Structures are given as structure tokens and as C-alpha cells.
Amino acid sequence: MVSPEDQQVDALMLRQRQDMYLANHYTTAHITVVSVALGVAGISAASLLSSSPPFAEVHALLAVLWIVSLLATTVAFAGAMIGSITLPPRVPAVVDLGPPLLLALCEFLLFSILAYQVTGLSSPRALLIGWWFTFGAYGMLAAGQVWRVHHLVDPRTFARFRPRLRDDIWKAAGTGVFGTVIGTIHALTPRLPQALEFAFAALAGLAMVVALTSHSLSASQLRTDLGRR
């Protein structure tokens, strides 16, 4: 029979739990987010398969934005999976809990806004305003997340990794500013040339591809650094 003393959580057990607690928090949260986001992505894709006025004229553009949304979700997921290994053993603070949820909400909204048949958005302009402002918020929140990781990682252990994090902060913030500016342009302009709309979407997609490339290089560098230890 197990005595009450044997059932107590001692300091050693707490330290063992703490070793991967913060890293597991980030990875588990993003795995859950991706699962939900992909479900919403399927719903929005089904909605885009059938176009109806007045959205028929922007149907191709919405398909491009759907791809950008998928890339954005992939970027956030890759960043969490790669960067979490560098996190120290500690109990998550409040700033480790709230921002990931807000970022997850943005990933969810990027897809759900495109499902105009479900959301009931009245016009393509309203949809584009909502999508671009959400994309801007996504970039800003991602920058905050990367800054948090940069703040937490050991500068001695990951001396070569931290400069990459600083670059990622600026790239994510730039994405946030870009999305906000384009959303503002849509809010102030009744209609933009379709070629310009596609150019904006292409730039957003390019930013996500650059971010994925950066994550790939960071992962390669971490594998090299950890292999030397």
C-alpha cells in the first residue's frame, strides 16, 4: 500500500516536471492550433469552391489568400516546433500564455474570414479589410512571440541562434506593418485594381516563404550546434 508520504510531490519531481514544461506548453498549444486551423481551412476551401456574386470577381484572389493563410499557419507552427527546444526550464508566465492564444485566434480568422458563405460578409471589400487587418495582427503577435523567445534563451548557449531571432522579430514586425497598411488602404479606398490586389497577396506569400526559409536555416544551425555538444 502506498503511504501518503510517497504520494507527495517533492522538489526533485517539480524540477523534473519543469525541465520541459515551458517547451511542452508551446509545442502542445501550437499542435492544437494547427489541428483547429486546418479544420477551418477545409471549411473555407469548400466555401471557395462555389462562388457567388459579388464574390465571383475576386474568387481567384481569395484562393491566393487561402494559400497565404496556409503558409502563415505553417510559419507559426514551424517557429514553435524549432524554437521551443531552446527554451529554459521554467513555469510559464502570463506573457507565455496570452499571446499564443491571440496568435492562434489570428490563424483561425485568416481562414474563417475567407469562408464568406459562412460568415455572411456582405462584400469583397469588407472581407479584404478584415483579412488584411488580421494578417497585420498576426505579424505583430508573431514578432512579440519571437521577442519573448529571444528574451528567454540563454545567450551563451545559443549565441549563434539569437541573431536569427532578432532578424525574425524585424521580419514579423514588417509583416504586421504591411498587413495593417494594406488593410488601411482597403478601408480608405472603395476599389483597388485587381492587379494591385494580386501584387499585395503575392508579397504576403513571399514574406511567408522567406520566413519558412529562415526557420529551415535556424533548424539546420541548431542541429549543427547541438551535434557539437
Describe this structure in a few short sentences.
Keywords: Membrane, Transmembrane, Transmembrane helix. The chain is 75% helix and 0% strand.
Verbal overview:
The mean pLDDT is 82. 75% of the residues lie in helices and 0% in strands. It is built from 8 helices and no strands. Helix 2 runs parallel beside helix 4 and helix 7 (162-188) runs antiparallel to helix 8. It has helices at residues 11-19, 21-49, 59-83, 98-112, 116-119, 124-152, 162-188, 194-227. The chain is an all-alpha fold. The chain has one domain. Keywords: Membrane, Transmembrane, Transmembrane helix. The chain crosses the membrane at residues 29-49, 61-85, 97-116, 128-149, 169-188, 195-217.
Q: Give the overall pLDDT as a whole number.
A: 82
Quick one: biggest sheet? none
Intertermini distance: 44 Å
What's the domain count?
1
Order of helices and strands: HHHHHHHH
Record field, number of beta strands = 0
Strand content: under 5%
Shape type: elongated
| Percent helix range | over 70%
Give the class from helix and strand content and strand pairing.
Answer: mainly alpha
Spans of 5+ residues with little confidence (pLDDT < 50)?
none
Radius of gyration, taken over Cα atoms and rounded to an integer in Å: 21 Å
Helix count, DSSP H or I runs of 4 or more residues: 8
Summarize the topology.
Blueprint: H1 11-19, H2 21-49, H3 59-83, H4 98-112, H5 116-119, H6 124-152, H7 162-188, H8 194-227
Helix pairs in contact: 2-3, 2-4, 3-6, 3-8, 4-6, 6-7, 7-8
